[in-house]
Specification:
6-stranded antiparallel β-barrel, 134 residues, alpha+beta
Length: 134
């Protein structure tokens, strides 16, 4: 089955939505010789998946393609393997969903980096107001 015909429903209690989309590199590996990299906008993320927007049309790629997302939220660069589980083409590119390969350590890394990023954002907001977070 192609990705277009797949039904995918996310049921997660934690999903971090960015005020301004975060930049991420998505690498598509069709086979060992054919590896493509695109800069995408990361719209939201959870420990198990993400929603991204690519200015490139991803029509020819299906769930058979190995996908890795490379992103840095604060300090640590995360390389997250997974698969494209849905996509919606538009005139400007493709909105797509990525489901991450299950790995507890990877899930913990994503959550801790997001927590650290949010903590630093709050510190900056409070600093701009002339207050302390603690």
């Amino acid at each position: 089955k192609g990705v277009e015909s797949m039904q995918y429903r996310r049921k997660e209690s934690f999903r971090f939505t960015f005020d301004t989309p975060q930049s991420a590199i998505v690498q598509l590996r069709v086979n060992e010789a054919n590896r493509l990299s695109y800069t995408c906008d990361l719209i939201d993320i959870s420990a198990r998946g993400a929603r991204l927007f690519s200015p490139i049309r991803l029509d020819e790629y299906t769930a058979d393609v190995i996908v890795e997302m490379v992103v840095t939220f604060f300090k640590k660069e995360l390389v997250i393997p997974g698969e494209i589980v849905w996509k919606r083409p538009s005139k400007d590119g493709t909105l797509f969903g990525m489901h991450f390969s299950h790995d507890k350590k990877q899930e913990q890394n994503i959550i801790s980096e997001l927590k650290f990023k949010r903590h630093k954002e709050l510190e900056e907001e409070f600093r701009l107001k002339g207050k302390r977070l603690y």
